[in-house]
Amino acid sequence: MSDDTVITRLLVANRGEIARRVFRTCRDLGIATVAVHSDADAAMAFVAEADATVRLPGNSPAETYLRIDLIVDAALRTGADARCTPATGFLSENADFARAVVDAGLTWVGPDPESIETMGSKISAKALMAEAGVPVLGELTATTATEADLPLLVKASAGGGGRGMRVVRDLAALGAEIDAASSEAASAFGDGTVFVEPYVEHGRHVEVQVVGASDGVLVLGERDCSVQRRHQKVIEEAPAPGLSDATRAALHDAARAAAAAIDYRGAGTVEFLYDPGRDRFWFLEMNTRLQVEHPVTEAVLGIDLVALQIAVAEGRPLAELVVPEPSGHAVEVRLYAEDPAAGYRPQSGRLRRFEIDGVRSRFEGPDVAGIRLDSGVGAGDEISTFYDAMIAKVVAWAPTRDQALRRLAAALADAEIHGLRTNRNLLVNLLRDPVVRDGRMDTTWLDGADLSTLGRCVTSPDAVGLSAFAATIAVAEQARMQRPVQQRITSGYRNVVAEPLLAAFEDTDGEPVDVRWHGGATPCPADRDDVRVTGVELPVGSGQGDPVVVRLDVAGVTHTFRVHVDGRHVDVESALGHVALTRRPRLVDPAGLVAEGSLLAPMPGSVIDVRVGVGDHVSEGDTLVVMEAMKMQHAIAAPAAGVVVELGAEVGSQVDAGTVLAVVDADAAESLEPAHEGETP
Questions:
Q1: Non-local CB neighbours of 651 within 8 Å, separated by 6+ positions
Q2: What is the pTM of this model?
Q3: What are the structural domains of the chain?
């Protein structure tokens, strides 16, 4: 690459939040931008923000964002002179893609294809790191491992995210676990190569940010990413807490040696497993890209890592780059549309409301202590089943670690996120947990946590009941204001005491929440006398998106509830926590009922396998249909033994949540049992 390379138009082969992040830097640098997008993403914000866009026909990643030929063609057609792979996912660490970009005469913003290839194989990378003097864990095999080596970790050489990984505590099971990990890795990454190494119990995940250029390697501090679920990061922070100056310096030196060993160019991350008990660390892998958690490094250093990537791609030496001293502490969480209590099941649907107070910057470090928000979606957008379920990265920067943790927890707790389940409550409770506050977390800590407790957001056992009553008042007042002036009497008003009215709701688990109340000028619940309404404030003017504010006096304490009504959906926000309710209809449409024994789709997705036919006899627990949603497979099993009397989906079809996939008739199974001797069948 020549020293006079100047990038004028850059194509970002990514989507959502990270595409918007790169576009923000490009605007600062005066670089025009090109977005590629699938059909599912056509209305997303990153598409609207690009200077030019190219449609990739289809929805799935394989049809769109993983098509090297289509993306290179899009760059050439739009006059882009560079292609950037700034972060995680899709083709971000694909050496063949990097070569295709270079062969097309375009500037590749990222490391050389050879560096990507070398670090893409964890086995060869470990060997190279050992030669460079970087500490590595010894490699074992099924024949060389002994009882003294337990526990062991079987790990895929390619890929990541916990797939192709097994912890082995019984030596007799090692062979089977190697076969299982190899099969999973082959399915996920197209490469079934695995290796075995000692498993470090209660280790921490510490990684070092580097930027390599023609004149050396720049180390930009470290991050701790130890709070993980299923080997996927949940909370990240910089700098890593609890490290001695000597250990920190040794980590930085090892990362510099690792990057120098492959003549690394651009931004990258060297990941280490740190054992706090022995104050030792070992090389895990190198990510030849910009990490999802790069904002915490930007916050504490006041730099723009995407700008540094582009500077290196244009041939600028590190000597020209000025990096300030680190200041303060930054913490990042990944806000996902998922249900932690249901095994982190991804959620999909419309994000009806998404508001976080205190946001001082978007896609760039705050210039004062505050919140940074990097998100690819907003209110009204759909979280689809085709891609990752991350809604946003939320980052807090403050002078101290304790202040950053408190600030981020408060911002999330007060956020208004309506429309689908998220891991928000889990994140709030983790940020406030003594283990995290004291810096005692490790990579397996969250695996043993009680998610039913950590996932709660309400602070009072009466929160749901009070929120439902506030919702009842809000709905009644809205209905009253929508009537003609002459008829504006509170719904349910009686000039004599009568039987209470019933407001019927369901919570997010489908459980009924009923409120019995008397109408009138000052309605109050019929079944308790310690609650009274002290005020109702309706939105002024159009009030688009504004809530109805209801104040309730509960045993002498006033609580304020902000009630958002969107058709049948009612979301209630208060200091007691967020409560999501659905209004139950007074009369049920028979057409909406499903037959007994119906198997319903738990979420929108595609049907990839139907393993039975109409008339087949099945046993309880048999898998009948397999769905795919958000890169995960979900087996739909028979609830009881019976006969399949109906199939509602076929392979390749897209289904909505609640779609009837199959109907199993348990009674029919009994009628098919063979008759005993002497009986008439």
A1: 607, 608, 609, 610
A2: 0.82
A3: 9-109 (3.40.50.20), 138-198 (3.30.1490.20), 328-457 (3.30.470.20), 463-583 (3.30.700), 590-671 (2.40.50.100)
